[in-house]
Fold this sequence. Notes:
101 residues; single chain; 5-stranded mixed beta barrel; alpha+beta
Amino acid sequence: MKRGQNQGPQEMRRVRSPRRGEIPGVVEQILGHGKLRVRCADGKTRLSRIPGKMKKRIWIREGDVVLIKPWDFQSDEKADVIWRYTRTEANWLERRGYLKL
Length: 101
């Protein structure tokens, strides 16, 4: 058995669906200093930042599906990343119609 493979039962986890004011998107480019360029499901490309609380806990790469919350001002240009989806969760979102890219 290879290292890192788990033989135990799989844990079921609920997928966090987008709530009011939140938009799913795909990371197009990593800009550095906790900033990303995200192509959103509403067709706009926004400059997004990763909050410090999240920056220390997870890694975000190009092609990852994330959930963003646009700012109150400059909502068409800037946003905050609030969640990163796993590949399985992203497939679920696409099947349900939340992610139209």
